[in-house]
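Q: UDP-N-acetylenolpyruvoylglucosamine reductase, please. Structure only.
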Amino acid sequence: MDIFSAVRMVLERECPELELRTEEPMARHTTFRVGGPARLMAFPKDKKEIKAAVRAADQMGVVPFFLGNGSNLLVADKGVEAFVIKTGGLDQVREVNRRLRAECGIPLSRLAMAALGRGLTGLEFAHGIPGSLGGAVVMNAGAYGGEMVQVLTAVTYLDETGQEHTVPAEQCQLTYRHSVFTDHPAWLVLEAEMELEQGDAEEIRAKMEDLAQRRKSKQPLEYPSAGSTFKRPAGHFAAALIEQCGLKGLTVGGAQVSEKHAGFVINRGGATCADILKLTDQIKETVLRETGVALELEVRTLGCV
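A: Structure for UDP-N-acetylenolpyruvoylglucosamine reductase:
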C-alpha cells in the first residue's frame, strides 16, 4: 500500500463523510486550466472535515497541498504525487462590530460583496481578484492600491498536526506577496478577521464597478490565466519591461504573452504547463538580457521541475 492509499484508508475510517477523489485532474481546479492528476484530493465541507484531513496527513508523514481557487497556480502536465486539500467548501462569513470573520475558501469576490451588503468599505480592491481568502492572506494579495495587510486584524490557522491557533495580523509577517504562511506551507489559513469602516453602499458599489471596468478594459479576462505572471521588480513594472522588450504576443504552443496586457501569460487554447514554463523562461531571459532586471514568477508552481 502506498502512502496516499494509507491516507485515504485513515480518512475513510476517521471521517467517512469526507469526499475523496483519486487521480483528480488539476486542470479542473486552476484558472490556467492546466495540470495533470493529483494522486489524492479531499473536498472538506467544514472545519471538522478539514482538521481530519490535516491530521491524517500528519499521521502518515505527508505534507498536504492546500488549494483555494487555483488562481495563482501552475501544475505539471504529468500531475503531482500529492495529497491536495481543496478549501472551497469552507466559505462562511459573519460580521461582528464592523469586523468580518470569514472562512478560507470564500472567493474574494463574494467576500467583497458581503462587505458591500453590510455597508462596509475597505475590500473594494479585492472584488476582482479571482482567488480565495486563504490564498489572499498567504500571498498578501492586492490590487489597485489595496492589500490584505491593510484590513487584516487576525488569522486562525491549523498547524501541521491540525491544532488551531489564532494570532494577530502583526504576527503574520505580511509583506509584498509574502507572509509567515509562505514560509510554513504545512500551515493552513483557516479563517481571517478583517476590520472595515462603515461607508455608503452606493459609493462602495460604484468603486467596485469602476475597478471591474478598469480590469475588463486592461486585462485579458476572456482567456484562462493565473493573473499577473511575475512579481513587481523593485523600481519597475513587469508588464512595462516585457512590453519594452517587444514580447507582447510572443507564443509558445498554446501559451501567449497577452497582447492586451504584457504582464499576463494566457492559455489561448490547449496550452500545457511545459508551454507556459518555456514561455516564461524566454521572457525572463530576454528581459534580463535587454534591461538587466531579473523577473521572478508570482505564479506558484506544483510538480514542475
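A: Brief note, in case it's useful. The first strand starts at residue 19 and ends at 25.
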